[in-house]
Design a protein that fits this description.
Distance between the termini: 44 Å
Number of strands: 8
Structural class: alpha+beta
Radius of gyration: 16 Å
Helix content: 10-25%
Amino acid sequence: MSLMKIARLGHPVLRRRTDRMDPADLARPEIQRFIDDMIETMRDAPGVGLAAPQVHESIRLFVMEPPGDEGESRELQVVVNPVLTFPSDEKIRLWEGCLSIPGIRGETERWAAVDVECLDRAGRPVRVSFEGYPAAIVQHETDHLDGILFLARMPDPLEIAFEEEFARFVREEDDV
Protein backbone atom coordinates (compact mmCIF):
# COMPACT_ATOMS: atom_id res chain seq x y z
CA MET A 1 0.00 0.00 0.00
CA SER A 2 1.05 3.58 -0.51
CA LEU A 3 -0.05 7.08 0.31
CA MET A 4 -1.53 9.17 -2.49
CA LYS A 5 -1.33 12.90 -3.13
CA ILE A 6 -4.51 14.73 -2.19
CA ALA A 7 -5.89 17.24 -4.70
CA ARG A 8 -6.31 20.70 -3.23
CA LEU A 9 -8.85 23.46 -3.78
CA GLY A 10 -8.43 24.79 -7.31
CA HIS A 11 -7.52 21.51 -8.98
CA PRO A 12 -9.98 20.78 -11.85
CA VAL A 13 -10.55 17.15 -10.76
CA LEU A 14 -12.46 18.50 -7.73
CA ARG A 15 -14.96 20.33 -9.96
CA ARG A 16 -15.97 17.44 -12.25
CA ARG A 17 -18.85 15.04 -11.85
CA THR A 18 -17.38 11.54 -11.64
CA ASP A 19 -18.12 8.51 -13.80
CA ARG A 20 -20.14 5.57 -12.48
CA MET A 21 -18.11 2.47 -11.84
CA ASP A 22 -18.82 -0.82 -13.57
CA PRO A 23 -19.36 -3.38 -10.77
CA ALA A 24 -17.09 -5.83 -12.63
CA ASP A 25 -14.19 -3.37 -12.25
CA LEU A 26 -14.29 -3.81 -8.47
CA ALA A 27 -12.85 -7.32 -8.87
CA ARG A 28 -9.74 -5.99 -10.60
CA PRO A 29 -6.63 -6.16 -8.36
CA GLU A 30 -5.60 -2.59 -9.25
CA ILE A 31 -8.99 -1.24 -8.06
CA GLN A 32 -8.73 -3.20 -4.80
CA ARG A 33 -5.20 -1.82 -4.33
CA PHE A 34 -6.52 1.68 -5.09
CA ILE A 35 -9.18 1.26 -2.36
CA ASP A 36 -6.53 0.08 0.12
CA ASP A 37 -4.38 3.11 -0.78
CA MET A 38 -7.38 5.43 -0.29
CA ILE A 39 -8.00 3.98 3.17
CA GLU A 40 -4.34 4.36 4.12
CA THR A 41 -4.27 7.94 2.77
CA MET A 42 -7.48 8.87 4.64
CA ARG A 43 -6.15 7.50 7.92
CA ASP A 44 -2.73 9.11 7.47
CA ALA A 45 -4.17 12.57 6.63
CA PRO A 46 -5.99 12.11 9.15
CA GLY A 47 -9.56 12.24 7.89
CA VAL A 48 -12.93 10.56 8.34
CA GLY A 49 -13.67 10.28 4.63
CA LEU A 50 -11.94 10.46 1.27
CA ALA A 51 -13.47 10.52 -2.21
CA ALA A 52 -11.72 9.24 -5.34
CA PRO A 53 -11.54 12.71 -6.97
CA GLN A 54 -9.52 13.90 -3.98
CA VAL A 55 -6.80 11.47 -5.07
CA HIS A 56 -7.11 12.41 -8.75
CA GLU A 57 -9.47 9.64 -9.91
CA SER A 58 -12.79 10.68 -11.43
CA ILE A 59 -14.81 7.64 -10.34
CA ARG A 60 -17.86 7.34 -8.05
CA LEU A 61 -16.18 5.81 -5.02
CA PHE A 62 -15.44 7.00 -1.50
CA VAL A 63 -14.26 5.55 1.79
CA MET A 64 -15.32 6.70 5.25
CA GLU A 65 -14.59 5.80 8.84
CA PRO A 66 -16.45 8.12 11.22
CA PRO A 67 -15.37 8.33 14.85
CA GLY A 68 -17.49 6.37 17.28
CA ASP A 69 -18.04 6.79 21.00
CA GLU A 70 -14.93 7.63 23.03
CA GLY A 71 -13.06 8.45 19.80
CA GLU A 72 -13.04 4.82 18.61
CA SER A 73 -13.58 4.23 14.89
CA ARG A 74 -16.86 2.93 13.56
CA GLU A 75 -17.01 0.41 10.78
CA LEU A 76 -15.06 1.34 7.68
CA GLN A 77 -17.33 1.89 4.68
CA VAL A 78 -16.39 1.58 1.00
CA VAL A 79 -19.17 3.23 -1.03
CA VAL A 80 -19.45 2.84 -4.80
CA ASN A 81 -22.01 4.58 -7.05
CA PRO A 82 -24.04 6.03 -4.14
CA VAL A 83 -27.64 7.17 -4.55
CA LEU A 84 -28.86 9.21 -1.59
CA THR A 85 -32.40 9.67 -0.28
CA PHE A 86 -33.41 11.70 2.73
CA PRO A 87 -36.03 10.16 5.04
CA SER A 88 -37.01 13.42 6.78
CA ASP A 89 -36.89 17.19 6.37
CA GLU A 90 -34.74 17.61 9.49
CA LYS A 91 -31.42 19.38 8.98
CA ILE A 92 -28.33 19.87 11.11
CA ARG A 93 -25.68 22.55 11.15
CA LEU A 94 -22.09 21.57 11.72
CA TRP A 95 -18.57 22.80 11.12
CA GLU A 96 -16.92 20.86 8.31
CA GLY A 97 -13.37 20.55 7.15
CA CYS A 98 -11.93 18.91 4.07
CA LEU A 99 -8.63 17.23 3.25
CA SER A 100 -8.65 19.16 -0.05
CA ILE A 101 -9.02 22.49 1.81
CA PRO A 102 -6.48 22.02 4.61
CA GLY A 103 -6.60 24.23 7.66
CA ILE A 104 -10.10 25.64 7.04
CA ARG A 105 -13.50 24.93 8.65
CA GLY A 106 -16.89 26.24 7.63
CA GLU A 107 -20.38 25.93 9.06
CA THR A 108 -22.67 23.97 6.74
CA GLU A 109 -26.23 22.74 6.73
CA ARG A 110 -26.87 19.08 5.90
CA TRP A 111 -29.74 16.61 6.08
CA ALA A 112 -29.85 14.98 9.54
CA ALA A 113 -30.35 11.47 8.10
CA VAL A 114 -29.58 9.79 4.82
CA ASP A 115 -30.29 6.41 3.23
CA VAL A 116 -27.63 5.22 0.79
CA GLU A 117 -28.08 2.66 -1.97
CA CYS A 118 -24.69 1.68 -3.36
CA LEU A 119 -22.29 -1.11 -4.11
CA ASP A 120 -19.86 -2.33 -1.47
CA ARG A 121 -16.21 -3.12 -2.08
CA ALA A 122 -17.09 -6.54 -3.51
CA GLY A 123 -19.64 -5.06 -5.92
CA ARG A 124 -22.67 -6.26 -3.94
CA PRO A 125 -25.68 -3.93 -3.72
CA VAL A 126 -26.25 -2.60 -0.18
CA ARG A 127 -28.55 -0.14 1.54
CA VAL A 128 -27.21 1.68 4.59
CA SER A 129 -28.72 4.42 6.78
CA PHE A 130 -26.80 7.12 8.63
CA GLU A 131 -27.77 9.86 11.07
CA GLY A 132 -26.02 12.93 12.46
CA TYR A 133 -22.31 13.32 11.82
CA PRO A 134 -21.95 10.11 9.75
CA ALA A 135 -24.85 11.30 7.55
CA ALA A 136 -22.99 14.58 7.01
CA ILE A 137 -19.83 12.68 6.03
CA VAL A 138 -21.79 10.69 3.42
CA GLN A 139 -23.22 13.91 1.97
CA HIS A 140 -19.80 15.62 1.98
CA GLU A 141 -18.11 12.72 0.17
CA THR A 142 -20.98 12.30 -2.31
CA ASP A 143 -20.72 16.02 -3.05
CA HIS A 144 -17.08 15.39 -4.03
CA LEU A 145 -18.35 12.82 -6.54
CA ASP A 146 -20.57 15.55 -8.02
CA GLY A 147 -17.82 18.18 -8.15
CA ILE A 148 -19.15 20.15 -5.15
CA LEU A 149 -17.01 21.37 -2.24
CA PHE A 150 -18.38 22.02 1.24
CA LEU A 151 -17.88 25.77 0.78
CA ALA A 152 -20.95 25.68 -1.52
CA ARG A 153 -23.02 24.24 1.36
CA MET A 154 -22.32 27.13 3.71
CA PRO A 155 -25.49 29.21 4.29
CA ASP A 156 -23.36 32.10 5.59
CA PRO A 157 -19.99 32.60 3.87
CA LEU A 158 -18.79 34.53 6.92
CA GLU A 159 -18.96 31.38 9.07
CA ILE A 160 -15.49 30.20 8.06
CA ALA A 161 -12.36 29.90 10.17
CA PHE A 162 -8.83 28.59 10.19
CA GLU A 163 -8.69 25.42 12.28
CA GLU A 164 -6.58 27.05 15.02
CA GLU A 165 -9.07 29.90 15.45
CA PHE A 166 -11.95 27.45 15.22
CA ALA A 167 -10.48 25.42 18.10
CA ARG A 168 -9.75 28.54 20.09
CA PHE A 169 -12.86 30.67 19.55
CA VAL A 170 -15.71 28.87 17.81
CA ARG A 171 -15.62 25.67 19.87
CA GLU A 172 -15.56 27.78 23.04
CA GLU A 173 -18.74 29.55 21.88
CA ASP A 174 -20.43 26.24 21.09
CA ASP A 175 -19.61 24.94 24.57
CA VAL A 176 -21.34 27.88 26.29
